[in-house]
Each structure stands twice: as C-alpha cells, then as structure tokens.
Amino acid sequence: HSSISVSNDRKIALGTICTAEDKMQCSLMAWSTQTGRKVFSARLRSTNRYPNVSHLSGDGKNIYSISNGTLYKFEVKSNQKTHFTHPYFKGASVIDSLDHDTLLIGSADGYLLMVRKGRITRSYARVPAAIQRISAIANRSSGSINVATLDSGGKVSIWTINGDGVNLTATLTEFWDEEWIISTPDGYISHSRNAA
C-alpha cells in the first residue's frame, strides 16, 4: 500500500510505500515541495497483519509511523528517532496529530486513542467498525477537541473530547441511494426525504 500527506504550509510532503510481501518493507520519504530535494528517509519492516500507518505533522517537523505495534517519531530536520511500544498500537489504522506531542490514533478494532509523548493518555469508546480516517481540531478557547472519524462501515461520527472524557455528538450514515440519516445519542434524528 502507499500514502502521501503534505504539511499545512505545503512545504513538506511525505510519501509512504510498502511492498505487498509477507514481511512488508516500508519506505518513508519526505521532500521539500519548493526545491524537490529529499529531506528525510527511513525504512521500516511491517507485516500484512499489522500494516504500516504514517502521518506527517501539520507543521512538517515530525513524522509518526506505527509498524508492528511500535510508534516511531522521526524529527524531519535532525532525523532523530524515538519509539514507543504498546499492544494497542498493533491495531492502528490511522493517525492524526493535534500538536507536536499529541496524537489521535484510530484502530482497526474501532478504538480512538489519545497518545501524548508516546504514552496512551486516554482510550475512547469503541465504534462498531475499523476507523479509517480521523480529522481533529483543537478548540483552544474551550480546551476541547472536535474529532470526526470515518469507519469502514461508511459512518461518520463526530466526537467532542474534553476534561469529562469523550462524548459522541452525532453520527451520519449515508446510503448507496444518496439518502442519509443523522442521529445523536439523545435520540434526535434528522434524515433526507426518503430515508425514514
């Protein structure tokens, strides 16, 4: 499999390419979009059971990669590597960074994990399917984090994370015929005309 991501300022791009063998070899390469020069490269081994998941931080300074249950943090400029191992990292399916030390990790088991400096600080409610995408925005004024997850069943869940824990705000389900339903944990439901 392969993936690509770009820093928020569009100056650094990360490409991840993994071979499709039993013991995957994954190459991570970052380059300057302004000069076209390679600024970082690393190789990691992975397995088909626990494929590699990589993410470039929004500021383009760090690359996070999970391979075989180990979370690696690479500093792009210095090529310094630190790593952390935890059983929950084995099921990682996606990573998003909130800041230079805090990550949200979605798992193939449907868990949403908050990781700070390599340690799981919170584990959140499980959704019924593998989390495939995460998009998180920190609300600095309220101290909360708004998170959208997309699971393998096609549902988009909206979460609010704050000092009280995690709260599922709403779930959007879209059907093949372009009909949709939005539901909240309190029982409020909105839907397209023919979805009811």
Report the end-to-end length measured between terminal Cα atoms. 39 Å
Q: What level of helicity do the residues show?
A: under 10%
Give the beta-strand count: 18
Question: Could you tell me the radius of gyration in angstroms?
Answer: 18 Å
Quick one: overall form?
globular
Mean pLDDT: 83
Work out the strand percent: over 45%
Low-confidence stretches: none
Largest sheet: 6 strands, antiparallel
**Helix/sheet category:** mainly beta
Strand order of the largest sheet: 13-14-15-16-17-18
Number of helices, where a helix is a run of at least 4 consecutive DSSP H or I residues: 0
- What is the N-to-C order of secondary-structure elements (H for helix, E for strand)? EEEEEEEEEEEEEEEEEE
Salient structural properties:
single chain; 196 residues; mainly beta; six-stranded antiparallel beta sheet; four-stranded antiparallel beta sheet; globular
